[in-house]
Amino acid sequence: MEALRQELDDLKASALDQIDQSADPAQLEQARVQYLGRKARLTAILRQLVALPPQERPVIGLLANQVKQAIEERIAARRTALESVPSDEVLATDRIDVTLPGRWPTVGRLHPLTQIIREICRIFAEMGFAVIEGPEVEWDYYNFEALNIPEDHPAREMWDTFWIDPTSAQVDKPMLLRTHTSPMQIRIMEQTKPPIRVVVPGKCYRYEAVDASHESQFHQIEGLAVDEGITFADLKGTLYAFVRRLFGDERKIRFRCDYFPFVEPGVDMSIDCFRCKGAGCRLCKMSGWLEILGAGMVHPNVLARVGYDPARYTGFAFGMGPARVAMLKYGIEDIRLFHDNDLRFLQQFP
Ligand code: FA5
């Protein structure tokens, strides 16, 4: 009996040792078969208990079952441990260095033109202007005719036009890609009654050579205010307030006569060059002034065209190129940079 007891102790010790040493599930299974399988020594001892003398049977039986249970528990624990450890193969291919600093995901940002358009519209919105948009494919009527630019008017040459092929578009009136946002003046006045205060951002198209300050597709922001008693002083005051919000309080402004068929009088507006403070530099082409928009008092013919009484209502309108404004604000020398999609350029506008 003493010998059997010793054998069971040795069996237990070597089984637990082998289980602990098994490096993968296959080795563990091998140990299980060896110590608990049909041909295992422990199985034989348990099977032959009946052959033992009656006084030894319960003692050896208890001991043999305790050994069996201890081996089973150790196998289960080892299996759980082995399953939670990735295999060498996984470790080799799926290596993660948790000490490396994390990689920041690239976060997109708004295009600088979108930013400046929103900034300009926000300034006017705070002054009580509504922001609306309109169609880029336009009738000749809105783009020219109703704006006091009849078919034979020389001012049409100011806006080289992309015409829509009437046959393929199946239209019986001349259609075009709008050359400016001014047609929205007519559309808005047709649909509403004064008082009107709106700004209209949007894309425009001109059939012209692309260079450092011209593109064939570009943005404009139109402004329109119509009511009783609106004067040129309102136009100046509004544009002064806008320029100072955008470019700073110390900016000087200059209005000069200009010609647009749909305003009378017409002006262009410049600001003093903030780079050279008016002394003359490359940015302002040595003039000390930077032109940013065209404007004027809405022509009586235009008011009459939409059914407003020009004796009762007056209004002002302006149109600016936001790319030009952004170029001035940030000292950008070539308008084409906006659409080159060079991240080094775009990332400068957070
Ligand atoms: C006009 O288009 C008038 N509709 C503006 C206006 C509105 C006058 C209301 C009076 C009353 P002009 O052609 O100057 O005007 O264009 C206005 C601005 O659009 C320019 O100052 C410029 O900033 C921008 N612009 C014109 N052509 C291009 C172009 N090819 N590429 C980029 N910007 C342009």
In short:
With 350 residues, the chain is an alpha+beta fold. The protein is 40% helix and 18% strand.
Q: Would you mind describing this structure in some detail?
A:
The protein is of the alpha+beta class. The chain contains 13 helices and nine strands. The protein has helices at residues 2-21, 25-36, 41-47, 57-84, 88-93, 112-126, 140-143, 166-169, 183-191, 232-247, 300-305, 322-330, 343-346; strands at 130-131, 137-139, 175-177, 196-205, 217-228, 253-258, 263-272, 289-298, 313-320. The protein has a seven-stranded mixed beta sheet, with helices on both faces. A two-stranded antiparallel ribbon has the order 2-3. The mean pLDDT is 90. The protein binds adenosine-5'-[phenylalaninyl-phosphate]. Adenosine-5'-[phenylalaninyl-phosphate] binds next to β5, β7, β8, β9 and α12.
Write down the secondary-structure element order. HHHHHHEEHHEHEEHEEEHEHH
Ligand types = adenosine-5'-[phenylalaninyl-phosphate]
Average pLDDT across residues? 90
Helix content: 40-55%
The CATH level-2 architecture of the largest domain is identified as 2-Layer Sandwich
Identify the overall geometry. Answer: rod-shaped
Task: Indicate the structural class.
Answer: alpha+beta
Largest beta sheet: strand ordering: 1-4-5-9-8-7-6
Radius of gyration: 43 Å
**Biggest beta sheet attributes:** 7 strands, mixed
How many domains would you count in the coordinates? Answer: 2
How many β-strands, per DSSP? 9
> In CATH terms, what is the fold-level topology of the largest domain?
BirA Bifunctional Protein, domain 2
The CATH first-level class of the largest domain comes to Alpha Beta
CATH superfamily placement of the largest domain: Bira Bifunctional Protein, Domain 2
Strand content: 15-25%
Helices, by number, come to 13
Which residue ranges are poorly predicted, with pLDDT under 50 across at least 5 consecutive positions? none
